[in-house]
Every structure is written in C-alpha cells, then in structure tokens.
Specification:
Helices cover 14% and strands 34% of the residues. It is of the alpha+beta class and 80 residues long. The protein has a single domain, classed as PDZ domain (Pdz3 Domain, Roll). Strands 1, 2, 3, 4, 5 and 6 form a six-stranded antiparallel sheet that branches.
Length: 80
C-alpha cells in the first residue's frame, strides 16, 4: 500500500489467499475510506496499524477501481 494523491491509498500488492484477495481487491485500486473515515485522515503508518488488528476484526473499505467505487468488508486473519 502506498500513498496516492493525498486523498487515497493505492493498493500495491495483494497476497494470494489473503483477506484482500478473498474480497476481490486488486493492485492499483484506491482505498478512499476506512470504516467511514476518509483515507486522507490516515498516514501510511496509521492505516497499516488499523489493518493489523486481531484476526476476526471486520474493516469496511470504500475502494475505487476500474469498475467504479465499491464497498468491501475485510475480515482480518492471522497470515502467519
């Protein structure tokens, strides 16, 4: 994940069989909101912290891709 234009974060990588891949997130899509909070309110570090919570935590994302803006619900997992 990397900062895009200051208002969103661009997805730089999606790990196979990860929560992101399971909800269909794709490299290049832009995260616009996290749990109803504008992405611009986060630094890369604080967004990363938000996405590294306990397994089972649900996080609502608003994402912009080639097919428009859509919402997904990530359910965090322990990837190790």
């Amino acid at each position: 994940m990397r900062a895009s234009d200051g208002s969103a974060f661009e997805i730089a990588d999606v790990i196979p069989d990860s929560p992101a891949s399971k909800v269909g997130l794709k490299v290049g899509e832009r995260i616009l909101k996290v749990d109803e909070t504008e992405a611009s309110a986060f630094s890369v570090a604080t967004l990363r912290e938000r996405l590294e919570k306990e397994p089972g935590t649900k996080i609502d994302l608003e994402v912009q891709g080639d097919d428009g803006v859509h919402e997904v619900v990530l359910v965090l997992e322990d990837l190790l």
